[in-house]
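Hi R.,

As promised on Friday, here is the backbone we talked about, encoded as structure tokens. Could you run it through your design pipeline when you get a chance and send me back a sequence?
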């Protein structure tokens, strides 16, 4: 897998050949010229659309059958909570099996789970269990796909490929939930779930046909497992810098309904508040990926992360809807720091541990976001919503600054190649790992 220092194992080829590219600085269009990435991205979009439909249709289905708001909320939460456990238990699978096998297997398992939900007479407990199983494998899928992009895209193209995956997810948040709500006006929840199953099956087919089979990097047992990632000071700091801003930036979204009630903005205000931050994030990420050089993006990682949550302090003034939207959009632009952070984390982890590291990263992100929303809701039980949001900006900025300092210290004391816990835990990679179309 590639790095800025030339330590990658992918082989540069002509754009569109399907095995790799090193189109540093060529922009997003060069990434889409790689055939294999086009298949991965299309599969991502299809499975993402299926997931969005399920996030809305399943709680509606459960509520229609039980009239229980609690069970409806639990159904929604089960799309996220099992991911922490999945990341912890499945991380070792990420670097032990071929990426295509893992990705196709995860998609097929999710399709089977959704199909089983459609069986006549399926009890609510069964729906919840199937929902939890499909969420359980999501960190593994996301981690293996992220590491696999390093096999397909080289140099800055890897960063831009990861960026496009995030942009698609943000776009789904902007438009997907609203579109699904309209879809449920025409279809029953069960009929809508057929689209979810179809999305997973189509994703599996695209990944099976359009990606190459590569032998797993960790051909031997990697000593220390996931523990060795956290034993490395540099990786530990980068993971913290990935997770902490996300843990606090979701608080305004979790409090969108009570805050709009506080300022009298109504249900329309809720929808606008939920889209403001993703809009800012998508705009900033596309601009940074298109206009900034890779070295500039990496230099901006720490400054952008340090100030990302500062706009939330404006909520101490209990701003009206227009200023609230501006503050959230501005906070969203700070998420462009993730482009440079992706490169730093990828370079900090040995090739045979990258799939595992990305699985841990994905599981951690979902976990801290859920914890952040829960903490914000708990705070709002004791103080007005606008103070809870402003408080998340204050506390979050302090925590992120600690992580920034840790990353800087780790960079200054970085050990030479071949030393440290990660190097000691590495296993010998296979000399030839690509086969098949």
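Update: got your reply. Pasting your designed sequence below so it's all in one thread:
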């Amino acid at each position: 897998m590639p790095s800025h220092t030339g330590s990658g194992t992918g082989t540069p080829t002509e754009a569109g050949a399907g095995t790799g590219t090193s189109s540093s600085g060529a922009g997003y269009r060069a990434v889409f010229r790689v055939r294999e990435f086009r298949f991965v991205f299309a599969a991502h979009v299809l499975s993402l659309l299926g997931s969005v439909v399920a996030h809305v249709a399943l709680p509606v289905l459960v509520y229609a059958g039980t009239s229980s708001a609690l069970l409806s909320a639990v159904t929604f939460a089960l799309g996220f909570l099992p991911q922490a456990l999945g990341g912890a238990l499945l991380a070792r699978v990420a670097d032990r099996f071929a990426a295509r096998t893992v990705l196709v297997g995860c998609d097929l398992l999710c399709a089977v789970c959704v199909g089983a939900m459609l069986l006549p007479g399926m009890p609510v407990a069964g729906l919840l269990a199937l929902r939890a199983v499909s969420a359980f494998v999501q960190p593994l899928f996301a981690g293996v796909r992220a590491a696999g992009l390093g096999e397909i895209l080289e140099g800055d193209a890897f960063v831009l490929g990861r960026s496009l995956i995030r942009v698609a997810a943000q776009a789904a948040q902007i438009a997907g939930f609203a579109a699904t709500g309209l879809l449920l006006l025409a279809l029953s929840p069960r009929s809508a779930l057929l689209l979810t199953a179809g999305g997973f099956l189509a994703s599996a087919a695209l990944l099976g046909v359009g990606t190459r089979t590569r032998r797993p990097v960790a051909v031997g047992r990697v000593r220390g497992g996931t523990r060795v990632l956290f034993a490395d000071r540099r990786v530990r700091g980068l993971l913290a810098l990935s997770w902490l801003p996300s843990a606090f930036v979701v608080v305004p979204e979790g409090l969108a309904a009570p805050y709009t009630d506080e300022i009298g903005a109504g249900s329309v205000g809720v929808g606008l508040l939920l889209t403001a931050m993703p809009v800012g994030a998508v705009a900033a990420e596309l601009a940074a990926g298109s206009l900034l050089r890779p070295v500039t993006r990496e230099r901006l990682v720490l400054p952008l992360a340090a100030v990302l949550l500062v706009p939330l302090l404006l909520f101490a003034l209990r701003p009206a809807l227009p200023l609230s939207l501006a503050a959230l959009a501005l906070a969203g632009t700070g998420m462009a720091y993730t482009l440079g952070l992706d490169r730093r984390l990828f370079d900090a982890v040995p090739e045979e541990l990258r799939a595992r590291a990305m699985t841990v990263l994905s599981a951690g992100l979902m976990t801290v976001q859920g914890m952040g929303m829960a903490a914000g809701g708990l705070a709002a039980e004791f103080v007005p919503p606008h103070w809870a949001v402003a408080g998340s900006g204050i506390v979050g900025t302090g925590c992120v600054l600690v992580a920034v300092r840790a990353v800087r210290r780790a960079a200054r004391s970085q050990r030479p190649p071949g030393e440290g816990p990660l190097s000691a835990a590495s296993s010998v990679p296979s000399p030839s790992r690509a086969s098949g179309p």
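One thing I noticed while checking it: Strands lie at 213-214, 434-435.

Thanks again,
M.
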